[in-house]
Design brief:
By secondary structure, this protein is mainly α. The chain has nine helices and no strands. 83% of the residues lie in helices and 0% in strands.
Length: 201
Protein backbone atom coordinates (compact mmCIF):
# COMPACT_ATOMS: atom_id res chain seq x y z
CA UNK A 1 0.00 0.00 0.00
CA UNK A 2 1.40 3.39 -1.04
CA UNK A 3 1.77 6.24 1.47
CA UNK A 4 -0.81 8.33 -0.40
CA UNK A 5 -3.34 5.50 -0.31
CA UNK A 6 -2.62 4.95 3.38
CA UNK A 7 -3.36 8.63 4.14
CA UNK A 8 -6.63 8.38 2.21
CA UNK A 9 -7.52 5.20 4.08
CA UNK A 10 -6.76 6.83 7.44
CA UNK A 11 -8.98 9.79 6.57
CA UNK A 12 -11.79 7.49 5.46
CA UNK A 13 -11.47 5.30 8.54
CA UNK A 14 -11.38 8.21 10.97
CA UNK A 15 -14.42 9.84 9.39
CA UNK A 16 -16.44 6.64 9.52
CA UNK A 17 -15.59 5.77 13.14
CA UNK A 18 -15.85 9.25 14.71
CA UNK A 19 -19.30 10.11 13.32
CA UNK A 20 -22.38 9.20 15.38
CA UNK A 21 -23.49 5.60 15.05
CA UNK A 22 -24.63 2.70 17.21
CA UNK A 23 -21.17 2.05 18.68
CA UNK A 24 -20.50 5.68 19.58
CA UNK A 25 -23.93 6.39 20.99
CA UNK A 26 -23.76 3.25 23.12
CA UNK A 27 -20.29 4.25 24.36
CA UNK A 28 -21.52 7.70 25.32
CA UNK A 29 -24.51 6.20 27.12
CA UNK A 30 -22.23 3.72 28.88
CA UNK A 31 -19.80 6.45 29.89
CA UNK A 32 -22.68 8.46 31.35
CA UNK A 33 -24.27 5.50 33.13
CA UNK A 34 -21.22 3.53 34.28
CA UNK A 35 -18.17 5.80 33.97
CA UNK A 36 -14.96 5.39 31.98
CA UNK A 37 -13.34 2.48 33.82
CA UNK A 38 -16.35 0.16 33.60
CA UNK A 39 -16.73 1.01 29.90
CA UNK A 40 -13.16 0.00 28.97
CA UNK A 41 -14.08 -3.61 28.04
CA UNK A 42 -16.81 -2.21 25.77
CA UNK A 43 -14.24 0.11 24.17
CA UNK A 44 -11.75 -2.72 23.61
CA UNK A 45 -14.46 -4.90 22.11
CA UNK A 46 -15.03 -2.28 19.42
CA UNK A 47 -11.36 -1.40 18.94
CA UNK A 48 -10.35 -5.03 18.34
CA UNK A 49 -13.64 -6.61 17.31
CA UNK A 50 -14.31 -4.41 14.30
CA UNK A 51 -10.85 -4.88 12.72
CA UNK A 52 -11.25 -8.66 13.20
CA UNK A 53 -14.56 -8.37 11.40
CA UNK A 54 -12.82 -6.51 8.54
CA UNK A 55 -10.28 -9.32 8.19
CA UNK A 56 -12.97 -12.02 8.04
CA UNK A 57 -15.15 -9.97 5.69
CA UNK A 58 -12.24 -9.22 3.38
CA UNK A 59 -10.98 -12.79 3.26
CA UNK A 60 -14.24 -14.66 2.84
CA UNK A 61 -17.56 -13.27 4.02
CA UNK A 62 -17.94 -10.99 0.99
CA UNK A 63 -17.72 -14.07 -1.21
CA UNK A 64 -20.69 -15.56 0.63
CA UNK A 65 -22.75 -12.48 -0.21
CA UNK A 66 -21.58 -12.73 -3.83
CA UNK A 67 -22.68 -16.36 -4.01
CA UNK A 68 -25.94 -16.00 -2.07
CA UNK A 69 -27.23 -12.37 -1.88
CA UNK A 70 -30.22 -13.23 0.40
CA UNK A 71 -27.67 -13.85 3.20
CA UNK A 72 -27.09 -10.11 3.42
CA UNK A 73 -30.82 -9.39 3.62
CA UNK A 74 -31.24 -11.93 6.43
CA UNK A 75 -28.30 -10.38 8.28
CA UNK A 76 -29.82 -6.90 7.99
CA UNK A 77 -33.19 -8.07 9.35
CA UNK A 78 -31.50 -9.64 12.37
CA UNK A 79 -29.37 -6.53 12.86
CA UNK A 80 -32.37 -4.20 12.84
CA UNK A 81 -34.22 -6.36 15.37
CA UNK A 82 -31.23 -6.48 17.73
CA UNK A 83 -30.54 -2.74 17.51
CA UNK A 84 -34.17 -1.96 18.31
CA UNK A 85 -33.85 -4.21 21.34
CA UNK A 86 -30.70 -2.37 22.45
CA UNK A 87 -32.44 0.98 21.97
CA UNK A 88 -35.23 -0.23 24.25
CA UNK A 89 -32.66 -1.34 26.85
CA UNK A 90 -30.95 2.06 26.80
CA UNK A 91 -34.25 3.92 27.02
CA UNK A 92 -35.17 1.92 30.11
CA UNK A 93 -31.75 1.92 31.81
CA UNK A 94 -31.64 2.13 35.59
CA UNK A 95 -31.26 5.45 37.47
CA UNK A 96 -27.67 6.46 38.45
CA UNK A 97 -27.44 4.70 41.82
CA UNK A 98 -29.09 1.52 40.58
CA UNK A 99 -26.86 1.53 37.50
CA UNK A 100 -23.79 1.57 39.73
CA UNK A 101 -24.85 -1.56 41.63
CA UNK A 102 -27.18 -3.45 39.30
CA UNK A 103 -26.52 -2.27 35.76
CA UNK A 104 -23.90 -3.92 33.62
CA UNK A 105 -22.06 -2.35 30.68
CA UNK A 106 -21.28 -4.49 27.66
CA UNK A 107 -18.42 -6.94 28.13
CA UNK A 108 -15.51 -7.26 25.70
CA UNK A 109 -17.04 -10.30 23.99
CA UNK A 110 -20.52 -8.77 23.82
CA UNK A 111 -19.12 -5.60 22.28
CA UNK A 112 -16.97 -7.51 19.77
CA UNK A 113 -19.92 -9.72 18.81
CA UNK A 114 -22.15 -6.68 18.43
CA UNK A 115 -20.09 -5.57 15.41
CA UNK A 116 -21.61 -8.44 13.45
CA UNK A 117 -25.15 -7.13 13.92
CA UNK A 118 -24.30 -3.44 13.55
CA UNK A 119 -25.49 -2.16 10.14
CA UNK A 120 -23.05 0.76 10.22
CA UNK A 121 -20.16 -1.64 10.91
CA UNK A 122 -21.17 -3.76 7.91
CA UNK A 123 -21.42 -0.68 5.71
CA UNK A 124 -17.98 0.51 6.90
CA UNK A 125 -16.34 -2.90 6.46
CA UNK A 126 -17.72 -3.53 2.98
CA UNK A 127 -16.86 0.00 1.82
CA UNK A 128 -13.32 -0.10 3.25
CA UNK A 129 -12.55 -3.45 1.64
CA UNK A 130 -14.08 -2.41 -1.69
CA UNK A 131 -12.17 0.89 -1.82
CA UNK A 132 -8.83 0.10 -0.17
CA UNK A 133 -8.34 -3.67 -0.47
CA UNK A 134 -9.72 -4.35 -3.90
CA UNK A 135 -7.52 -7.42 -4.37
CA UNK A 136 -8.79 -8.86 -1.07
CA UNK A 137 -5.34 -10.33 -0.41
CA UNK A 138 -4.19 -10.77 3.19
CA UNK A 139 -1.69 -7.90 3.18
CA UNK A 140 -4.15 -5.29 1.94
CA UNK A 141 -6.90 -6.46 4.28
CA UNK A 142 -4.51 -6.34 7.27
CA UNK A 143 -3.52 -2.77 6.40
CA UNK A 144 -7.18 -1.74 6.45
CA UNK A 145 -7.76 -3.56 9.75
CA UNK A 146 -4.63 -2.05 11.33
CA UNK A 147 -5.64 1.50 10.44
CA UNK A 148 -9.05 0.89 12.01
CA UNK A 149 -7.41 -0.27 15.25
CA UNK A 150 -5.57 3.06 15.53
CA UNK A 151 -8.48 5.34 14.70
CA UNK A 152 -10.86 3.31 16.88
CA UNK A 153 -8.70 3.98 19.95
CA UNK A 154 -9.21 7.72 19.39
CA UNK A 155 -12.91 7.40 18.65
CA UNK A 156 -13.92 5.05 21.48
CA UNK A 157 -11.96 7.07 24.02
CA UNK A 158 -13.47 10.35 22.85
CA UNK A 159 -17.08 9.18 22.95
CA UNK A 160 -16.70 7.47 26.32
CA UNK A 161 -15.05 10.54 27.87
CA UNK A 162 -17.85 12.68 26.42
CA UNK A 163 -20.41 10.48 28.13
CA UNK A 164 -18.42 10.47 31.36
CA UNK A 165 -18.20 14.27 31.38
CA UNK A 166 -21.93 14.53 30.86
CA UNK A 167 -22.40 12.40 33.95
CA UNK A 168 -22.04 15.39 36.27
CA UNK A 169 -25.09 16.96 34.59
CA UNK A 170 -27.04 13.70 34.80
CA UNK A 171 -26.93 13.36 38.57
CA UNK A 172 -30.68 12.98 38.94
CA UNK A 173 -32.85 10.04 37.83
CA UNK A 174 -35.03 12.37 35.75
CA UNK A 175 -32.14 13.86 33.78
CA UNK A 176 -30.54 10.47 33.18
CA UNK A 177 -33.88 9.03 32.08
CA UNK A 178 -34.29 11.83 29.53
CA UNK A 179 -30.69 11.40 28.35
CA UNK A 180 -31.08 7.64 27.90
CA UNK A 181 -34.29 8.07 25.95
CA UNK A 182 -32.70 10.67 23.70
CA UNK A 183 -29.75 8.32 23.12
CA UNK A 184 -32.16 5.49 22.31
CA UNK A 185 -33.98 7.74 19.82
CA UNK A 186 -30.68 8.72 18.19
CA UNK A 187 -29.69 5.05 18.00
CA UNK A 188 -32.89 4.29 16.08
CA UNK A 189 -32.28 7.36 13.89
CA UNK A 190 -28.76 6.21 12.95
CA UNK A 191 -30.25 2.82 12.06
CA UNK A 192 -32.81 4.49 9.77
CA UNK A 193 -30.13 6.67 8.13
CA UNK A 194 -27.78 3.72 7.47
CA UNK A 195 -30.59 1.64 5.98
CA UNK A 196 -31.77 4.59 3.87
CA UNK A 197 -28.23 5.13 2.59
CA UNK A 198 -27.94 1.46 1.64
CA UNK A 199 -31.32 1.61 -0.09
CA UNK A 200 -30.23 4.66 -2.07
CA UNK A 201 -27.02 2.89 -3.02
Amino acid sequence: MTFQLLILLAGFAFTTVITPGPNNLMLMASGANFGFRRTVPHMLGITLGFPCMIVLVGLGVMQLFDLWPPAYTILMVLSVAYLLYLAWKIANAAPPREAETEGKPLTFLQSAAFQWVNPKAWSMALSAITLYATSRDLGAVLWVAGVYVVVSVVSTTSWTVLGQQMRRFLNSPKRLRVFNRVMAAFLVLTLVLVLAQQGAG
